[in-house]
Structure formats: structure tokens, C-alpha cells
Design goal:
Length: 109
């Protein structure tokens, strides 16, 4: 597994550790929140698959919101964006993600 340079700082913020008072770099975090089911789940003929997937998404959404809130509250200069979409948010919401990236980058200038 490859770790990006800020992984330890991000994980500290997400886990509630107060190792750093601030992140000294601009932060853009895009979360799929709420997650929506990939198309194959809704088309499954098996009601058990749909029920299990629904329960999984409810749990995933709760955990994602916890992470997004921890980052937003723990890193005041972070821009935390929540978009309704699939786990691969860039694929399900390409236009929205690009818009948010452009706005974030424009604010850095």
C-alpha cells in the first residue's frame, strides 16, 4: 500500500488525535456522503443482496459522516465537500469533483 505524504496528519485528524493544531497546507477532501448503491445492486434479482447492500450503505454513510466531520472540525482550513454519489466519487460525480477542485485551486492564487 502506498501512503501519500500527508497520511499521518490526516489519520491523526480523523482519529481525534491532537498531534497538530493545524495542517500547514491547503486541504481539499471530497467525500461520497451519502454513498449511493452502484447500479448492479439495485438491479439484483436477489432481495437478500439488496437488503445486505442497503445495510452496508447505512453503516458506511454513518462512518463517512464521522470522518468528514472529524476532518472539518479538526482542521479549520480544510475544505470538506460532501457529494451524493458512489464510492468512486470522481467517476459518479466527475463534473462536481472538477468544479470543486477548480474552485479550491483558484482560491490558492
Amino acid at each position: 500500500m502506498r501512503e501519500f505524504p500527508g497520511m499521518k496528519t490526516v489519520m491523526a485528524a480523523l482519529m481525534g488525535a491532537r498531534t497538530y493544531a493545524t495542517m500547514p497546507v491547503p486541504v481539499l477532501a471530497v467525500f461520497a456522503d451519502p454513498h449511493v448503491a452502484e447500479p448492479w445492486v439495485g438491479r439484483s434479482p436477489d432481495p437478500a443482496v439488496r437488503k445486505t447492500a442497503h445495510a452496508y450503505l447505512e453503516t458506511l454513510n454513518a462512518r463517512t459522516e464521522t470522518q468528514a466531520s472529524a476532518l472539518a472540525n479538526g482542521v479549520p482550513n480544510a475544505r470538506v465537500v460532501r457529494l451524493r454519489g458512489t464510492h468512486d466519487i470522481f467517476l459518479s460525480n466527475e463534473t462536481d469533483v472538477l468544479r470543486e477542485m477548480r474552485a479550491f485551486l483558484a482560491a490558492l492564487k
